[in-house]
Each structure stands twice: as structure tokens, then as C-alpha cells.
Amino acid sequence: MFQIVNSGITQQTYYLKIFQNNIIYVFRNLAMYQNFFQRISGLLWLSLLVLPTASLLRFPKVILLALLIPLVIFLKPYYNKTLLYFLIAILLYACFNTLLGLLYGNPGALRVLTVTMLWPILFFIISGHFKIEYIKKVEKIFKVSAILILILGLIQLSESFFLYDGIAKYFFEKDAETYINIDKAYASFSNPAMASLLFLGPFFLTRLIIEKRKSDLWYVIIIILIGFIANRRGLLVAMGITIPILISFLIASGTIGLRKATTILARSVIVILFLLGILIYLYPEIITEFQNRFFTNKEASNVERTKQLPALLNGFYKNIFIGNGAGAVAGVVRSYEQPWSYELFYLSILFHQGIIGLLLYFSSFLTVLYFILKLVKKYPGYIGNHLIMVICASCVFLINSATNPYIGKLDYMWVIFYPIALCNFLSTKNDIKVLNIQ
After folding, report:
1. Which of 30, 64, 128, 376 could pair with 384 in a Cys bridge, judged by C-beta atoms 3.0 to 4.6 Å apart?
2. How confident is the model at residue 240 (pLDDT cuts 50, 70, 90)?
3. Is-contact 189 152, C-beta < 8 A?
């Protein structure tokens, strides 16, 4: 029998000491886990921003996401209870909606579980381990991502000019659409990374207005020029609605008054008109060409949405409250690989999950918005500014998602869960020293 000789302590105390020493060792090395968590999260975020939906990186992204889960065991989580309850309610309703889809025999009832349940659970778990010290690193990721996206766009345009399919097709395969019209004043092109500019553009624009960083002016100008030259209508709409949304949030949070808001709006309008004047003077053909393409309804994407609208509404009217179940297919098929997926994203939620599902999603985001505006008042300065910039950019992105199913993909869900991560930490942590970031 095991005995401890001349030790002066009991066997139980001895094992307790060993356990305490192991716990101390883990906590002393906690910084290592936090550093690894930061690096993996940053790498994953960069890949989601620059190469979203890239077939080549689909498996590595899942691996990076899976690596984050064991790491959180060693890190203390911060969860906002209200948002946690909303997540549980959404997941329970998603289970019900999946069972309904199976009952109706919907083809995508099980395949959409990754979007409705798996990815939200993983992102929410990870969001609980975000710390406010990461803000500066997040802004660096946004900056690097914008530069890489612009470089990728230039490479794509040059490849189209020389009629050569290279790096864009290599990464995005069928998702990349590369073409150029040399006879006109614009070069219409597309790739999935352009969707990230729907968040990054408004983010840099709000930071330019709030913090007056001169470097952001170049990002804003280049992104707006891309919108005109490459005929990215959604991007131009995003930049256009950013300022009124920003002013509304600044007023709602008590950051500025009506007089200051009027001044910001007037200055913004003057700058926009000045830039438009220069653009029209240098390239007068752009306006005519853009006007013809912006308001036409003959493009394939517009025709497709026109067909989807009555089909989704007719399906919604059959089951107004609970919808037609997960993975249901309306009268129009957008994709034979995923016939249950539609570009009119919020209408598709109504069709699949009914009014109850849509209300759950919208009420949860409005709750996040409420917490963000409340936290802006509590933490003025750098953190408050960052909160305003993030929630403004997220709202702009979500508005654009009405006609594109961005949020229904793993690569864009961070737009929702980054504001949640900020709420999780700031609404549960009250250490002023930690929050004193300038």
C-alpha cells in the first residue's frame, strides 16, 4: 500500500497539492493558449474576408474553425445571458423547422443544418472568448483584407484584359465571374471577395468621419471608384446609405446632437458631390453607362429575382406563421445543386421559417443593436467609436443581404457574430484597466 513517509501530510493532502500545482501550471501558460487563439482566429478571419466561398480553402477553413474549439477549454468565456437565451430559442426553432422539413419531405431539410445550427453554435462559442484587447488587431485585419481584395481585383481585371483565367478562377472556380468590356468606360467584374467590401467600405467611411483618419480617405475613394468602374451597384448603395445610418446611431447613442449631425451630413454631401464632379469630368461616359445598367431590369440577376419574388410569396402565404420547413423549394429553382437557396434572402426565411422565424432573427439582432448603443454611452472614446463603426457596417451589410444570400454562408456569418462578441465581453466585464485602450 502506498504510504507517504515522514512527510507530515496525509495522502489526500498530497494529491490535492499535486492537483493545485497542475492548475497553477495551466494558468501560468494561459497566455500561450490566448496567443494561439488570437493567431488561429486572425488567420481564419483573414481567409473569410479575402477568399470567401473559395473552393480551394473550404476544408482548411473548417480545420481552423475546429482548432478553435479545443482552445476555448483553457480560456474563460464571457457570454451575455440575454443573447444566449436568444440563441437557444433560435436553435430550438431551427430543430422544429428541420423536423417540419423532414415531415414535408423537403430535399434540403438536413443539408441546411450547418447554416441554421452548426455554424451559429460554433461562432457563438468562439465569440464568448473575444477580448477587447483584440480590437486593434481586428482593425489591422480589416486593413490588410481591403488591400488584398483590391490587389485580387486588379489581378482579375488584368487576366480578363488578356483573356486569361488564372488566380481568380484557381481560387473561386465557378464562383468567380471575370469579364471586361474594353469598348466601354467600365469593366464589369465580380468575385466573392467583393462582398466583403460591403462591410469594409462602410467601416472605413464611418472611421473617416468619426476619427478623421486621412489614410481611410484613400480606401473610401478607391472602394467608391471600384463601385463605379466595375459596376458594383450593391457596393455603391452600401456606401450611399452608410452616412444616414451612422448619423442615426450617433444620435441614438447620445454621441452627437442634431446640430452636429446636420453638419456631418452637409460636409459629407459636399465631399460626395465634389468627387462625383471630378469623376464625371474625367470620365463622362461612366455616368451614362452606369445609369443604363443600374436601372435596367434585363440583367440575368434582376430577371432571376423577379421570378423568385412571386414564387416565395405564394409559398409563404400557404404557411404564414411556421413556414414550409427547412430546405423547402418554391416554384422557381435558382440552383440545381441547392434548389432551396434564393437570392431574396429575407423572403426565403419567411418562406422556410415563417413570421416566427423571421421575428426571432430580427429581434435578436435588434437586441444586439440595443446593447451596442448602450455600451457606446458607457465606454466613450476609442471603444465607443469602434462599436459604432462595427454596428453601422454590419447593418449596411445586412441591408444588402436582402437581395443576396450572404448570411446563409459560413464565410459571412462573422458580420453578425463580431458585434455579438463585443457585446459578450463588454456587457459582462467591468475591468476599467482592461478597457482603457487608446
Report:
1. 376
2. confident
3. no
Is residue 314 a part of any domain in this protein?
Answer: no
CA distance 161 to 156: 9
pLDDT tens digit sequence for 114-160 = 899 988 998 898 888 888 888 888 999 999 999 888 887 777 766 66
User: Of how many residues is the chain composed?
Assistant: 438
pLDDT of 421: 92
Q: What is the dihedral of CA 386, 392, 393, 395, to 10 degrees?
A: 140
Band of residue 415 on the pLDDT scale cut at 50, 70, 90: very high
Helices (H) and strands (E) in the chain, counts: 18, 0
Are 331 and 314 in contact by the 8 Å Cβ rule? The answer is yes
- For residues 181 and 304, the model is more confident at 304
Return the percent helix, strand and coil in the chain, to nearest 5.
Answer: 75, 0, 25
Range of the domain at 267: 133-296
Q: What is the dihedral of CA 125, 127, 132, 133, to 10 degrees?
A: 80
Return mean pLDDT, the chain: 78
Give residue 388's identity as a one-letter amino acid code.
Answer: I
As a dihedral over the C-alpha atoms of residue 324, residue 327, residue 332, residue 335, rounded to 10 degrees, the angle is 170
C-alpha cell at 30: 494561459
Would you say residue 318 lies in a domain? no
Q: Which residues contact 91 (CB under 8 A, 6 or more apart)?
A: 117, 120, 121
CB 328 within 8 A of CB 101: yes
Which three cell numbers, joined as nine digits, stand for 124? 457563438
User: Against a cut of 0.85, is the pTM above it?
Assistant: no
Q: Is 205 helix (H, G, I), strand (E, B) or coil?
A: helix
Buried residues in 416-427 as b, exposed as e (16+ CB within 10 A): bbbbbbbbbbbb
* Closest to 234 (Cα-Cα) out of 219, 244, 223: 223
What DSSP element (H or E) covers 376? helix 345-378
Number of folded domains that form the chain: 1
205 found inside a domain: yes
The CA distance from 358 to 348, in Å, is: 10
The C-alpha atoms of residue 73 and residue 68 are separated, in whole angstroms, by: 9
